[in-house]
Amino acid sequence: MCTCIVMGKNHRYFGRTLDYECRFGESAAITPRNYPFSLKNGSAIRTRYAMNGMATVVGDYPLYAEAVNEKGLAMAGLNFPGSAVYFEPDEGKLNLTPFELIPWFLGQCETAAQVRECLPGLVITNVPFSEKLPLSWLHWMISDKNECIVIEQTNEGLRWYENPTGVMTNNPPFPFQMMNLRNYLNLSPNDPVNRFSDRLTLLPYGRGMGAIGLPGDNSPESRFVRAAFNKLNSECAEDEISCVTQFFHVLESVSLVRGATITEDGKPDITNYSCCVDTESGTYYYRTYTNSQITAVKMTEKEKNAAALINIPLVEEQQIYYVN
């Protein structure tokens, strides 16, 4: 269970919540330029562009949940179990396993358009990272300053969709999520107008009644609607601090509180972390469940040209500013 959004017109901010019942030893990770990745298809690449994001680092391999590269191209993988289907490698195709998509695309591409050019020949394969790290069932959202797309591979094969909402959650597949928004055409941030009957004088008795019917549960379908409504009606100043702050406010509206959603194994599903990345500067902002202060990880020329992967532990302990 996760929610991903992109906000801003000329200056784009990209991020997500990562919701799960356990942790993966994740940390902030910066992959420099010219960093080697060995691929399961037997080939290898070196990154043209540095990238900054959240990853579980195994050895010297960053398994990214989401990241942005130095050109402003951002990508996140979200849980998609029951719908995601991976295939056997297909000779002559671009065979990539799920964990290879982020380093391959962000390491090689500058724009979402360049990603789309690769998709007709892409096969997402069923090869795990290792015996101890099985496949994760995912779909992906990708954004640059001009567009946002969704990639899903199901029984029908690989599909990609333009995403005018700039929002993605989990199941059902993306076309259903877009169709479902039509059920909420009546929602408005403004006071409602009486359409019940012209024979009655009915007035709102409080603010926010224009959004009565906005779903408040934690299902992927409801989080998609709630995130889209809050994001598309969001207003804030244009400076970076205001935009980052507003971004986290939108993510708060879909964050999971410990105990409110219990898995079939009896474990609480929580928002382990939420993040926002400034796609222009490459600065990665994050908050964890146990530390609500925003922490920032910059990607300067020093990090972009580093000789090795940069792995930065998360600040997990709650930071409180005392005024007396």
Key features?
324 residues; alpha+beta; six-stranded antiparallel β-sheet; 6 helices; 18 strands; 29% strand; globular
Molecular structure report:
The chain has 324 residues and is α+β, with helices and mostly antiparallel strands. It has helices at 101-108, 112-118, 174-180, 220-232, 240-252, 301-304, and strands spanning 2-7, 13-20, 27-31, 36-38, 44-46, 51-58, 61-69, 74-79, 94-96, 122-124, 138-143, 148-154, 157-162, 167-168, 270-278, 284-288, 295-297, 310-312. The mean pLDDT is 96.
Give the gist of this structure:
The protein is of the alpha+beta class.
Task: Give the number of helices.
Answer: 6
Strand order of the largest sheet: 13-12-11-8-7-6-3-18
Q: What is the typical, i.e. mean, pLDDT?
A: 96
How much is the radius of gyration in Å? 20 Å
What is the subunit arrangement here?
single chain
Order of helices and strands: EEEEEEEEEHHEEEEEHHHEEEHE
Helix-strand blueprint:
Layout: E1 2-7, E2 13-20, E3 27-31, E4 36-38, E5 44-46, E6 51-58, E7 61-69, E8 74-79, E9 94-96, H1 101-108, H2 112-118, E10 122-124, E11 138-143, E12 148-154, E13 157-162, E14 167-168, H3 174-180, H4 220-232, H5 240-252, E15 270-278, E16 284-288, E17 295-297, H6 301-304, E18 310-312
Parallel strand pairs: 9-10
Antiparallel strand pairs: 1-2, 1-14, 2-15, 3-6, 3-18, 4-5, 6-7, 7-8, 8-11, 11-12, 12-13, 15-16, 16-17
